[in-house]
Amino acid sequence: MKGRLVVGSGLVVVAVVVGLLAAGIGPAQATGGLAPEEVVTGFYDWYLGYVGEGEMRKNPLADRAYRASEFLSEEFVAEVDAQLDSFDRGGYDPFLLAQDVPGSVTVGEALISGEMTVVPVETSFEGHGFSVILALVDGEWKIAGVTRTPEMVVEDFYEWYVGAFRREGEMRSPLVEGAYRERADLSAGFKAEVEETLASFDRVGYDPILLAQDVPVEVQVGEADAVGEGAQVVVELFWGGNPTPSERMVTVRLIDGAWKIAAVGME
């Protein structure tokens, strides 16, 4: 299925495990005529090849070697520079969204939307992946950002949301407290819809994020499927004493270079 955004066994793989410049594509080459998947494969071929193995390992971040890559947009290079400069001692790799370097990555099929595209990448770390954002720059695809996958965004949000109700051993509502307004993984439009729904209640209502009047004891997030210019993720909500979950369909859209939750509906 074209545009399927799945991290795991359902990933449609269009590139084999990257090796040390196996495709002969280096960062000094132009990306003219290359498909988004080829651009992503070329960059990570070079990136992992630059790191190397054993005692010969090098650090492309410390060396700032990525600055010479023709696969990256100038704006993204500047963002990475600023991000690395902001780290005190720790930090993470902004190209891998990890603190360590995987042995390999696999590149999935691109979801193209106008002058922007998203390519899913799965690493050799179990259950780890990310989305690479590309934009057309002077007719060539360039990597413009690396962000979490739709599944990661949905899972992180619901883990926080359900946990917020039981924070510090007492029942507290992130709706009443308005804590959800501070979440960067919710779109501005969805926050406005939640506000409007809450304002419409007289006395009794429901949770417009859970679409329920109770709080589940467990949440499980499924795989993402591309739909139009976004993705949809099925979320299973488990309730105390009931082994059968109820399902919600969470719509996620790419906004300002990051996946954000844009709607929640019944499955």
Could you explain how this protein is built, in words?
The chain is built from 4 helices and 9 strands; from the N terminus they run ααβββββααββββ. It has 267 residues and is of the alpha+beta class. It folds into 2 domains: 36-147, Nuclear Transport Factor 2, Chain: A (Roll), CATH 3.10.450.50; 151-266, Nuclear Transport Factor 2, Chain: A, CATH 3.10.450.50. Strand 2 and strand 3 (116-123) form a beta hairpin. The protein starts with 35 loop residues before the first helix and ends with a strand.
CATH top level assignment of the largest domain: Alpha Beta
Q: Tell me the count of domains.
A: 2
Number of helices: 4
Helix content: 10-25%
Task: Spell out the key features of this protein.
2 domains, alpha+beta, 267 residues, disordered N terminus, four-stranded antiparallel beta sheet, Nuclear Transport Factor 2, Chain: A, five-stranded antiparallel beta sheet
Helix and strand topology:
Layout: H1 36-51, H2 74-86, E1 105-107, E2 111-113, E3 116-123, E4 129-137, E5 140-147, H3 150-164, H4 188-200, E6 218-227, E7 230-239, E8 242-255, E9 258-266
Antiparallel strand pairs: 1-3, 2-3, 3-4, 4-5, 6-7, 7-8, 8-9
